[in-house]
Design goal:
Blueprint: E1 42-44, H1 64-67, E2 77-82, H2 90-100, E3 105-111, E4 121-124, H3 135-141, H4 146-155, E5 161-164, H5 168-178, E6 189-194, E7 201-204, H6 214-230, E8 238-242, H7 253-263, E9 268-273, E10 285-287, H8 290-316, H9 319-327, H10 329-339, E11 346-350, E12 355-359, H11 365-380, H12 383-390
Parallel strand pairs: 1-4, 2-3, 2-5, 3-4, 5-12, 7-10, 8-9, 8-10
Antiparallel strand pairs: 6-7, 6-11, 11-12
Helix pairs in contact: 2-11, 3-5, 4-5, 6-7, 6-12
Length: 410
């Protein structure tokens, strides 16, 4: 994800002293049937935030059909979608939402009042956060932006998950404010599926924390393992630590101490792994700090794109090459599909009181649709509740001098 990187969203993760999550009216209020073309429901997110039940802190794993059973309504997973996020324009986001809409998935679009939603539910917003804005500043000054309002909907229990292809830093900041950390989580982390040859593996942290401590990496490993189990369907996932060598004694102080913690955990930890083995499928879960992970992610994206483009150019440069290209077209399409970021849709931000999927800034409709489905899958599998069970108690508070500082990266 070209727009995913460690960012200075806040000096410390939101906790005490932050404003309470806002409240939002139900995007589905009214007589229209959700998700049915021609029966769009438009709600103003700014004008009706009061008089609603308290926000649901840790109930994002609850399936909407169960939540609405008492009212006799059977609905799918409600996914709040930031219609103004991404580089390709809102029409591409809407197209992706339409593709994902089904009996089991109900996308709710957040964007300007004149947004053409093609019949999907719509919450009207009056502000937009641009890609080049400072994350924390933008979130505080634009509470009625499509990105912030979509996150607020999850915190208020009006949606079960949120998807955005917008400013990643702003997404992180908004989620920290509106959803908060799960109890026991030291640092939320970004988990990205990597298209390895042996099947997808999880890279965590891919950019939420530029600096980290050994205990953070241990938690990242647990969160990544849960992601691999619930989303990728891998039983007892193998976990490895990204380092400069496979030997336990290789690495900097962070990796040396993290290795010791991981080796003593109940995870299926198999030691270190080098970055050259990531695309081969070195492990089901690869753990690192966000600075290292984000560099790895962007290097992989750039390498894959450059190689595929170079191969295509080489094939098309001669007549023989074009004939050969016809013969390998099926295999080439399969390879491109497996390596294409659009196939996975986006990355999870794990460790918060709601399902959050961060899509690529240049997401196509296919990528947005897959990101929405990825978010819905997390709700169906109760990822938030599972994480809350795995981290039942808040770790001890560290001294200010011990805290890692979040710094921006490119």
């Amino acid at each position: 994800m070209s727009n995913t990187g460690p960012v200075n969203t806040v000096q410390n993760f939101p906790g005490e002293g932050w404003p309470s999550p806002g409240k939002l009216p139900s995007a589905g209020s009214g007589s229209a049937e959700p998700g049915v073309p021609g029966s769009a429901v438009t709600t103003d997110s700014k004008s009706a935030r009061e008089g609603l039940p308290s926000p649901r802190r840790f109930g994002a794993g609850l399936r909407p059909a169960q939540a609405d059973a008492g009212q006799g309504r059977e609905v799918g997973v409600r996914v709040a979608v930031d219609a103004l996020g991404g580089d390709r324009g809102p029409d591409q986001i809407v197209a992706g939402a339409l593709e994902a809409a089904s009996d089991g998935v109900v996308p709710i679009l957040f964007g300007p009042r004149d947004l053409d939603t093609n019949g999907l539910e719509h919450v009207a917003t009056s502000q937009v956060i641009e890609m080049d804005e400072k994350p924390a500043e933008a979130v505080r000054s634009k509470p009625d932006s499509s990105l912030v309002a979509a996150c607020r909907a999850v915190g208020a229990g009006e949606a079960d998950a949120v998807v955005s292809a917008g400013n990643t830093g702003a997404m992180l900041a908004a989620c920290f404010i509106e959803l908060r950390r799960l109890r026991g989580i030291l640092r939320p982390a970004i988990a990205v599926p990597i298209p390895a040859r042996r099947g997808p593996s999880v890279l965590i942290d891919a950019g939420a924390n530029a600096d980290a401590r050994p205990e953070h990496l241990l938690q990242f490993a647990h969160m990544g393992a849960l992601f691999a189990e619930e989303i990728l369907g891998i039983e007892r996932p193998e976990v490895r630590l990204l380092s400069i060598g496979e030997e336990a004694e290789k690495g900097n102080q962070l990796t040396l101490e993290a290795h010791e913690l991981l080796a003593g955990s109940d995870l299926r930890f198999e030691g270190n792994v080098e970055s050259r083995a990531l695309l081969e499928g070195a492990a089901d879960v690869v753990v690192c700090d966000g600075f290292t992970g984000n560099i790895c992610l962007k290097l992989l994206e750039g390498t894959i794109k450059t190689l595929l483009d170079a191969l295509r150019a080489e094939i098309m440069s001669t007549r023989k090459g074009r004939v050969g290209g016809l013969l390998i077209r099926g295999a080439a399409r399969g390879l491109r599909s497996r390596l294409d970021p659009d196939t996975y849709g986006g990355a999870y931000l794990l460790g918060l009181g709601g399902i959050v999927v961060i899509a690529h800034g240049n997401s196509s409709p296919k990528a947005i649709a897959n990101a929405i489905r990825l978010a819905a899958r997390g709700v169906e599998h109760g990822v938030v509740d599972r994480l809350a069970e795995r981290f039942p108690e808040r770790p001890r508070k560290t001294k200010p001098s011990e805290r890692s500082r979040q710094v921006p990266a490119g």
